[in-house]
């Protein structure tokens, strides 16, 4: 059995699809399955069991001998949520429970960290373990992810293989349910479809032009390829960046979306909301050298190729991966 927590969500359901493509069908889906808007993410996929996240610890106690690998992708990911107690429970505490169980039962685990741990990028974007204690995230979500990374690194008992992946700006199919937290490509598509136009945040930093803010946008299919590689690799434990290593502008992203939709460009700008303006990241770019150093050699999908696949094969026809 392969366990995937967060299996009804964006990245988790994509990983299930990727595992199915490779012939892995004995998959245990773990999530809060009460949200009907996420059900389509796992419809049509092959799996052996669904386990509610609240009873997963008991399930694992009873079934760990049949488990081969754990992907812990479930988390509260709302960067606009400021109730620290929610993150302490669902991100930090729940992850610690899974880690300790994997140690006890001898299970390998890959878990989701986040590029939100890098804050304003004042320490750069290297996944060197020595830098992690110095990082200053900008919100409780980022704090919770960094708190777990720091905790994991100092544990005297660790799973025989583990990897934490710092997800950068992930986009792709199965994010219909994410509302405000969905990717800019998802919002661009819907705005262009509704009005024929797209409005981006104006730059409030003299070093960047309007729309020239840059992010490391990574296609969810690439991320799933990396996780599949790590499941087979099972050595070189540690924390790894999960981006492309190449920052692109929001203008690049928006132009690619217009092109994929075959709509003439009409791009305007609005002020960045005041509540996020002081904590707005103008540049992120993953240093991918560590992942490359352990043997991952596959190329990452270009922004233009990823947007075209996402828009033409998923958003326009309304399909799920």
Automatic annotation (TrEMBL):
<comment type="similarity">
    <text>Belongs to the NAD(P)-dependent epimerase/dehydratase family. HldD subfamily.</text>
</comment>
<dbReference type="GO" id="GO:0005975">
    <property type="term" value="P:carbohydrate metabolic process"/>
</dbReference>
<feature type="binding site">
    <location>
        <position position="145"/>
    </location>
    <ligand>
        <name>NADP(+)</name>
    </ligand>
</feature>
<feature type="binding site">
    <location>
        <position position="38"/>
    </location>
    <ligand>
        <name>NADP(+)</name>
    </ligand>
</feature>
<feature type="binding site">
    <location>
        <position position="215"/>
    </location>
    <ligand>
        <name>substrate</name>
    </ligand>
</feature>
<dbReference type="GO" id="GO:0008712">
    <property type="term" value="F:ADP-glyceromanno-heptose 6-epimerase activity"/>
</dbReference>
<feature type="binding site">
    <location>
        <begin position="10"/>
        <end position="11"/>
    </location>
    <ligand>
        <name>NADP(+)</name>
    </ligand>
</feature>
<protein>
    <recommendedName>
        <fullName>ADP-L-glycero-D-manno-heptose-6-epimerase</fullName>
        <ecNumber>5.1.3.20</ecNumber>
    </recommendedName>
</protein>
<dbReference type="Pfam" id="PF01370">
    <property type="entry name" value="Epimerase"/>
</dbReference>
<comment type="subunit">
    <text>Homopentamer.</text>
</comment>
<keyword id="KW-0521">NADP</keyword>
<feature type="binding site">
    <location>
        <position position="169"/>
    </location>
    <ligand>
        <name>substrate</name>
    </ligand>
</feature>
<feature type="binding site">
    <location>
        <position position="187"/>
    </location>
    <ligand>
        <name>substrate</name>
    </ligand>
</feature>
<feature type="binding site">
    <location>
        <begin position="31"/>
        <end position="32"/>
    </location>
    <ligand>
        <name>NADP(+)</name>
    </ligand>
</feature>
<comment type="function">
    <text>Catalyzes the interconversion between ADP-D-glycero-beta-D-manno-heptose and ADP-L-glycero-beta-D-manno-heptose via an epimerization at carbon 6 of the heptose.</text>
</comment>
<feature type="domain" description="NAD-dependent epimerase/dehydratase">
    <location>
        <begin position="2"/>
        <end position="243"/>
    </location>
</feature>
<dbReference type="GO" id="GO:0097171">
    <property type="term" value="P:ADP-L-glycero-beta-D-manno-heptose biosynthetic process"/>
</dbReference>
<feature type="active site" description="Proton acceptor">
    <location>
        <position position="178"/>
    </location>
</feature>
<dbReference type="InterPro" id="IPR011912">
    <property type="entry name" value="Heptose_epim"/>
</dbReference>
<feature type="binding site">
    <location>
        <position position="180"/>
    </location>
    <ligand>
        <name>substrate</name>
    </ligand>
</feature>
<feature type="binding site">
    <location>
        <position position="280"/>
    </location>
    <ligand>
        <name>substrate</name>
    </ligand>
</feature>
<dbReference type="GO" id="GO:0050661">
    <property type="term" value="F:NADP binding"/>
</dbReference>
<feature type="binding site">
    <location>
        <position position="178"/>
    </location>
    <ligand>
        <name>NADP(+)</name>
    </ligand>
</feature>
<feature type="binding site">
    <location>
        <position position="53"/>
    </location>
    <ligand>
        <name>NADP(+)</name>
    </ligand>
</feature>
<keyword id="KW-0413">Isomerase</keyword>
<comment type="pathway">
    <text>Nucleotide-sugar biosynthesis; ADP-L-glycero-beta-D-manno-heptose biosynthesis; ADP-L-glycero-beta-D-manno-heptose from D-glycero-beta-D-manno-heptose 7-phosphate: step 4/4.</text>
</comment>
<feature type="binding site">
    <location>
        <begin position="201"/>
        <end position="204"/>
    </location>
    <ligand>
        <name>substrate</name>
    </ligand>
</feature>
<dbReference type="InterPro" id="IPR001509">
    <property type="entry name" value="Epimerase_deHydtase"/>
</dbReference>
<keyword id="KW-0119">Carbohydrate metabolism</keyword>
<feature type="active site" description="Proton acceptor">
    <location>
        <position position="141"/>
    </location>
</feature>
<feature type="binding site">
    <location>
        <position position="170"/>
    </location>
    <ligand>
        <name>NADP(+)</name>
    </ligand>
</feature>
<dbReference type="InterPro" id="IPR036291">
    <property type="entry name" value="NAD(P)-bd_dom_sf"/>
</dbReference>
<feature type="binding site">
    <location>
        <begin position="73"/>
        <end position="77"/>
    </location>
    <ligand>
        <name>NADP(+)</name>
    </ligand>
</feature>
């Amino acid at each position: 059995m392969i366990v995937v927590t967060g299996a009804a969500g964006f990245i988790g359901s994509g990983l299930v699809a990727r595992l199915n493509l490779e012939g892995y069908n004995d998959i245990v889906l773990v999530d809060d399955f009460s949200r009907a808007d996420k059900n389509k993410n796992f419809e049509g996929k092959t799996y052996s069991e669904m386990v509610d996240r609240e009873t997963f610890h008991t399930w694992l106690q009873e079934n760990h001998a049949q488990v081969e690998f754990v992907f812990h992708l479930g988390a509260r990911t709302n960067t606009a949520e400021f109730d620290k107690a929610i993150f302490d429970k669902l991100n930090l505490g729940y992850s610690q429970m899974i880690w300790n169980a994997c140690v006890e039962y001898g299970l390998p685990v890959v878990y989701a960290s986040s590029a939100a741990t890098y804050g304003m990028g004042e320490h750069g974007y290297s996944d060197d373990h020595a830098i992690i204690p110095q990082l200053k995230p900008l919100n409780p979500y980022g704090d919770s992810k960094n708190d777990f990374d720091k905790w994991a690194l100092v544990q005297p008992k660790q799973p025989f293989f583990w990897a934490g992946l710092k997800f950068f700006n992930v986009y792709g199919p199965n994010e219909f349910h994410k509302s405000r937290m969905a990717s800019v490509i998802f919002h661009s598509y819907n705005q262009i479809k509704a009005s024929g136009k797209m409005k981006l945040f104006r730059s409030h930093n003299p070093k960047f032009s309007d729309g020239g803010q840059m992010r490391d946008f990574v296609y969810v299919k690439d991320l799933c390829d990396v996780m599949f590689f790590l499941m087979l690799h099972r050595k070189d434990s540690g924390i790894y960046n999960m981006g492309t290593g190449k920052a692109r502008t929001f203008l690049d992203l928006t132009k690619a979306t217009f092109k994929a939709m075959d709509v003439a460009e009409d791009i305007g700008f609005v002020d960045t909301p005041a509540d996020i303006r002081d904590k707005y990241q103008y540049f992120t770019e993953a240093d991918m050298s560590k992942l490359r150093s352990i043997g991952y050699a596959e190329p990452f999908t270009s922004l233009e190729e990823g947007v075209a696949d996402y828009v033409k094969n998923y958003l326009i026809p309304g399909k799920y991966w």
